[in-house]
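In response to reviewer comment 3 from the previous cycle, which asked for concrete evidence that the modeling workflow produces usable outputs, we include below a single protein chain processed end to end. The sequence was submitted unchanged, and the resulting structure tokens are shown without manual editing.
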Amino acid sequence: MKIVPPALAAHLATGATPLAYCWRLTRRDGVVLGFTEHDRDLVYAGTTFSAASGFTASQIQQSLDLSIDNLNAAGALSSADLTETDILAGRYDDADVELFWVNWADPSQGLTIAVGNLGEVTRAGIAFSAEFRSIANRLNQKIGTTCERFCSARLGDTRCGIDLGASAFHGTATAATAGQITEVTVIGLAAFATDWFTFGTLSFTTGANTGLLLDVKAHLRTSGIDILQLWTPTPFAVAIGDIATVTAGCRKTLSVCRTKFGNITNFRGYPYIPGSDVITRYAVQGALNASGGSLFAGS
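The workflow returned the following structure tokens.
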């Protein structure tokens, strides 16, 4: 239950309610930003909420049960606050969000409407759209580990233990193709085996994509030429000569953990658990295997 401050409650009782939505975002890197749908900047709870982004919010739906509250906000990208590069770099992913109702005629009066995290952020030209997800969304997140054949650790994390800073697991590549592309031909990776960077990452250190981290779908080598296939096109055009750091990837299998990383003691999967095919097996009467046990069809 929300408790409305007495001053705001008295204001609401008058029937004239000049209220505006205000969003406060706290990114994972600690940067705090404020936005409002009002046509002027507002200062509330120690934060300046900017009107420069042309922020608008949809109607919010809230309930008393554990269903997820939802709200969408839209606005324009601006060089001062919201930039396309920051969004593409994932700096707003899962940012903490506080949503307020503020009396723009007297910004000392306000009420916290919801608290949660930023969901999907999409862009189209200079416009952006952001999704608010309430705290109830955390109930949909996986907590702990599950039993599966593939490793559940993230390459390089504390559970994995691999030092990705070692020279064997990263290389410097120079782009040999240009454009906003999903396949980047590179030079500089000849010392690494083909497929070495499959499921790894590509981070440009020069050019228009500087600072952006891209996921590598596959690392191919044809006639001595290395090609990095990306899951999505590069956000900005690549220029010939752009330099990037490429980090090794992992297929999450027991054999790769053993042969590529020599890290089988830290493998976090269960490669020998029975699959779903077990339920379709059936006994064959009179058939015995070498150890005297029954043979099962389909095994």
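Helices lie at 6-13, 84-88, 254-259. We consider this sufficient to address the reviewer's concern, and the full set will be provided in the supplementary archive.
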